[in-house]
Design brief:
mainly alpha, Rossmann fold
């Protein structure tokens, strides 16, 4: 009886979505897919990647996003493909070609999902550019382009053309536009004032 009571208490205090049906029943919205938790992979030491590396090549670090390339038939890759398929179906009636990834709290996987989705699109031989717009914490730029010295700010201000600051992945041909904050001590509000 005591164990039964504890199990009921734990079940009632569990506020985490565990199945697609829970998501749909609670949020009254279709659940496209559920992403499993992935461990960070080991550092890449593939000599083939080093051979094809060119100037302004994306650094393939320890992000779980690369799972989409390394394990294309995994549950994670399948869920990312479901998101892309849903976006493709919406594009039949709309001409949108921009996808935004956001979350309600920090560290929920925005960068991982955005990178995996972009890699999935690029892996399918389509042209795609991933843009880091996280001005508060540009972790995507730090992971993919740690040596970048110019990016989104410089392009928006007209100081440099996008072609000169776009980085690419030599394997999938994913294009990436970083945001470089180290050289900017001003806030985004100050930057917008400079544009005006």
């Amino acid at each position: 009886m005591f164990a039964f009571g504890i199990s009921i208490f734990r079940d009632l205090s569990d506020h985490v979505f565990r199945t697609a049906s829970q998501v749909e029943a609670t949020l009254q919205a279709a659940c496209i897919g559920i992403l499993p938790v992935l461990k960070r992979p080991a550092e890449i030491s593939d000599t083939n990647v080093q051979k094809v590396a060119k100037p302004r090549s994306i650094v393939r670090g320890r992000s779980p996003s690369w799972h989409i390339v390394d394990s294309p038939f995994s549950r994670f890759s399948e869920a990312i493909r479901s998101v892309k398929m849903a976006a493709d179906l919406l594009a039949i009636n709309r001409s949108n070609k921009v996808l935004g990834i956001t979350s309600s709290l920090p560290n929920e996987g925005k960068s991982t999902i955005a990178t995996a989705l972009a890699l999935n699109i690029a892996f399918g031989k389509s042209r795609v550019i991933l843009v880091d717009c996280d001005l508060r914490n540009p972790s995507l730029s730090r992971n993919l382009t740690p040596n970048a010295d110019a990016g989104l700010f410089e392009v928006l201000s007209g100081g440099i053309s996008a072609e000169k600051v776009i980085w690419t992945d030599p394997i999938t041909h994913l294009a990436f536009l970083p945001v470089v904050m180290e050289s900017r001590v001003s806030t985004p509000a100050t930057f917008l004032g400079q544009l005006g």
